[in-house]
């Protein structure tokens, strides 16, 4: 079924402005400009902005928050392990009792000779023999959540990314996108490069500003929830 057009996909792009877009990536979409197998890509759902690139990937069967920007260097820094930007995922899994999952995740989980940078975890019952895991990681290795679960003998039924840094998915519908407009503060690039999205003053396009007033040199971290896009 074709997804409804989003507000972000139809808006006018301002030449020369740094663009930030938050997308609720649906299942079945590839995080790539083009797919040799002809599958739909996330670029079918966002504005045709020259130079727009994604901040981290989600595999084709994972849904949730995907950030895109025209600032390639900022995107690189947000993805780089050195900056340890937090990502939150929610997974519904089978194959182990909740208490056993908690015990297994209380110990370091090692992939490719390196411990997974798992900061926090919550395990809840999800009905039947399933468990729901909420995982906060400070890294973005390829398919890290799925591989972590596979290592523990867990089968992943559903996986969604809920947040990247302080940007949260909120109630944004699958296939819809929200525009992040950034204040023109003098030290904007410095803040993005050294602290990531957590220190960027962001506003919803047409909405109210969140975060510090323009010109503050050391703004506190801000959280921003993507709004529900209109149908």
Tell me what you see in this structure.
It is a single chain. By secondary structure, this protein is α+β, with helices and mostly antiparallel strands. It has two domains: 16-81 and 166-225, 2-Layer Sandwich (Alpha-Beta Plaits), CATH 3.30.70.580; 86-164, Pseudouridine synthase (2-Layer Sandwich), CATH 3.30.2350. The chain is 16% helix and 29% strand. It has five helices and 14 strands. Strands 1, 2, 3, 4, 7, 8, 9, 10, 11, 12, 13 and 14 form a twelve-stranded mixed sheet that branches. A hairpin with a 2-residue loop joins strand 5 (110-111) and strand 6 (114-115). Helix 2 (72-79) packs parallel to helix 5. The longest helix has 8 residues, at 72-79. It is globular. Mean pLDDT is 75; it is low at 1-10 and 181-231.
Protein traits:
5 helices, 14 strands, globular, 2 domains, Pseudouridine synthase, disordered N terminus, single chain, twelve-stranded mixed sheet, alpha+beta, two-stranded antiparallel ribbon, Alpha-Beta Plaits, 231 residues, 16% helix, disordered C terminus
């Amino acid at each position: 079924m074709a997804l409804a057009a989003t507000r972000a996909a139809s808006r006018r792009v301002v030449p020369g402005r740094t663009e930030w877009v938050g997308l609720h990536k649906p299942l079945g979409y590839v995080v790539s400009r083009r797919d040799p197998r002809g599958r739909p890509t996330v670029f079918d759902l966002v504005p045709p902005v020259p130079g727009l690139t994604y901040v981290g990937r989600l595999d084709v069967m994972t849904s949730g928050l995907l950030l895109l920007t025209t600032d390639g260097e900022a995107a690189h820094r947000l993805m780089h392990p050195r900056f340890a930007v937090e990502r939150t995922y929610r997974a519904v899994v089978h194959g182990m009792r909740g208490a056993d999952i908690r015990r297994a995740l209380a110990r370091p989980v090692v992939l490719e000779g390196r411990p997974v940078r798992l900061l926090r975890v919550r395990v809840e019952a999800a009905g039947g023999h399933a468990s729901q895991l909420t995982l906060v990681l400070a890294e973005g290795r390829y398919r890290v959540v799925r591989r972590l679960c596979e290592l523990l003998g867990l089968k992943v039924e559903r996986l969604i990314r809920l947040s990247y840094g302080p940007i949260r998915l909120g109630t944004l519908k699958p296939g819809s996108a929200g525009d992040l407009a950034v204040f023109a503060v003098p030290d904007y690039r410095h803040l993005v490069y050294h602290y990531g999205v957590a220190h960027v003053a962001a506003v919803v396009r047409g909405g109210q500003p969140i975060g510090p007033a323009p010109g503050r040199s050391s703004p506190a971290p801000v959280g921003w929830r993507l709004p529900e896009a209109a149908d």
